[in-house]
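User: structure tokens for GNAT family N-acetyltransferase, please.
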Amino acid sequence: MKIREGIKSDLPRALELIQELADFERAPDEVTNTVEAMEQDGFGPEPLFGFYVAEDVQDGIVGLALYYYRYSTWKGKRMYLEDIIVTESHRGKGIGKALFDQVIRQGIATQCSGMVWQVLDWNEPAIQFYREVYGASLDGEWINCSISREQMIKKING
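Assistant: Done. Predicted tokens:
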């Protein structure tokens, strides 16, 4: 197993893994991203995200960790881990931990003050992993909020 930085030609497989995650998270119809959008957003003049892939000699890309930087008014530059995805047939082999550790190394190398991510409240194996392996703090106090592009346009345009 090899962990390496993702490249443009990895994007079709990356999007397949993203869809697999959406299926796992019981939201199969929520993925609207495209390879073309990811190419523009990740490999354009001002990349918005980076990613690492886990590559198996026989099976190709079997895992993905996608991250970006955010800025906290309280903490400064932070690494944001958007998703770690390991294809179902390769789970339980340490691939997720290897990807997680690689993103941590990237955060350290780029002088981040810490790393944040989200986990679904019903994903007990992941919650236990983050607490036991990393001593992570899980904050039940904050509520996630979002609005869609359509909602943004409607609000601004009346």
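User: Anything notable?

Assistant: Helices lie at 11-24, 35-43, 95-109, 124-134, 149-157.
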